[in-house]
């Protein structure tokens, strides 16, 4: 913890909006607050890492890393490994770290907001008798103070009181700057207040009220600064990010403004979850029948240490000879693709027909029909039962289609039933029901809502708090795939002007005449 | 056959002398022309350079005076009786060819085969 300070949170204040976890959050926060508040603040102010993030290097890293290899006797298969890590990921407890930042910010802003009131109240409480009365000017100042505090409160609520959406690996520089600024500011005001007013028991109450008003003015300006730095500066687009997924090449281009690398990473991940089609590991590999042909080429093994120079020459000759052999795997790939397309289309046709037929078996019962026919009592069902009733005829076609398109891992029977129930409730047509299965949707569609969060690793050659610039490349890694992001600046546009008189649009016919002489 | 503005035009030309034939009231030459500086040069099927706005022979009536004199279809007319034909309007060209007072027109025409023949001879 001593050479990589953890700082987290995205918002200025803590969130009170999640009532369901409020109780647990509050007790945890009180516990965490007590320990972390002054420690982190102290470290934040004195730690070198704010100023020079790489000032302290750890040279012993190699000795403490652990590697999972496949050659030990107690090895587990790859699938087990991914399953174990996924379980771990989903069962990590709600971390304290996530709420340290917002809690700290909340305390600081509460302190800052209460300070002017304290400035006003303390003289009244402590030495009320000796205070000079001031009537009209002070009342004016009271009113303006009250309104400014109200404005501060409302705008803080609107802008900063949001639940944190991401935990950043390093300090969020601007936010730290602002918090330090606020803290120093308020502390210096208290210092002056303590020395000049409390000790000397200042009698000029109007001066004290003006002092408090100036503090509130300054806080408003700091909030303006916060607004500009945190919210507005990055709005004007300046760079174009190309995001490519490493496993299947899905790519997108985004325009962003001036951000640091870690903030840009969070921005990209926000867009990733709703723009990119979901990652399907089953779709990645070429069928074995095609690849196996390639594998029966020449293989050169050289176990002798001395002949390293000759072996490269030899292996190159072997590889060239292998390449010159007639290689038909591209042919097979083409036919295999065509066959796969045909199969998918056939299954899709069967599925669509089955679903259309199934939807014709039920219809919505209107209220006036309910009481009409006592002679033919129809069984009245709620959406769940209706969904179960019509699911049976389409289940087989659905399962075959999902298996052909390798999506069966994403849709369980339960989820299909739930979706069917949802569609029936909202009067959707069979096509609308099938929209979810015919095209792979964005990753958001398949996420389960839990508060655990997704673990991503930001891999970068530059320090992650540095600003974006041309030619920067960083990648966001997850367990089995990664997103590679390349930064290019947007071109500078020279816009010229040309005025066209509306009367200047004139036309003539093209002549081609032939005359005989 | 294209020209560079400001530079003199050079071409290998053939002199052709056509006797006009009297047919009822008119004196005819027996060919048709196309082109001119007021016409669309892109439509000319005979020119090599599609920005050439010269006068071209587009049709020759068989057995007429022009064919007898050796005029061929696709020829570009450079001069008619000394009048320049490389920078004239279509109507001006027609007028120069159909002057009632002249019985004979002396044309300078150029065609690609002339250029090629000269080049082969010079080699």
What is the secondary structure topology, with strand pairs?
The complex is a heterodimer of chains A (about 525) and B (about 120).
Chain A: H1 22-46, H2 61-64, H3 78-91, H4 97-126, H5 136-160, H6 173-198, H7 205-232, E1 239-245, E2 251-256, H8 261-275, H9 288-295, H10 308-324, H11 329-359, H12 367-370, H13 383-404, H14 413-425, H15 430-438, E3 457-460, E4 473-477, E5 482-489, E6 514-516
Antiparallel strand pairs in A: 1-2, 1-5, 3-4, 4-5
Helix pairs in contact in A: 1-4, 4-6, 4-7, 5-7, 6-7, 9-11, 11-13, 11-15, 13-14
Chain B: E1 14-19, E2 21-23, E3 26-28, E4 31-34, E5 55-60, H1 65-69, E6 76-80, E7 83-84, H2 90-97, E8 104-110, H3 112-122
Antiparallel strand pairs in B: 1-8, 2-3, 4-5, 5-6, 6-7, 6-8
Would you write up a description of this structure?
- The complex is a heterodimer of chains A (517) and B (123).
- Chain A contains 15 helices and six strands.
- Chain A has 517 residues and is of the alpha+beta class.
- Chain A has a five-stranded antiparallel beta sheet with strand order 2-1-5-4-3, with helices on one face.
- In chain A, α4 packs parallel to α6 (173-198) and α13 (383-404) crosses α14 (413-425).
- Chain A is extended and about 100 Å long.
- Chain B is of the alpha+beta class and 123 residues long.
- Chain B has one domain (27-121): PDZ domain (Pdz3 Domain), CATH 2.30.42.10.
- In chain B, the strands form two sheets. In chain B, strands 1, 4, 5, 6, 7 and 8 form a six-stranded antiparallel beta sheet that branches. In chain B, strands 2-3 form a two-stranded antiparallel ribbon.
- Chain B is globular.
- In chain B, 28% of the residues are buried.
- The model of chain B has no long low-confidence stretch (mean pLDDT 89).
- The chains are: A alpha+beta (517), B alpha+beta (123).
- The interface between A and B is medium-sized, with 8 and 18 residues.
- β6 of chain A pairs antiparallel with β4 of chain B.
- Chain B: Keywords: Acetylation, Cell membrane, Cytoplasm, Membrane, Nucleus, Phosphoprotein, Wnt signaling pathway.
- Chain B: It is found in: Cell membrane; Cytoplasm; Nucleus.
- Chain B: Its main location: membrane.
- Chain B: One of its GO terms (biological process) is neurotransmitter receptor transport postsynaptic membrane to endosome.
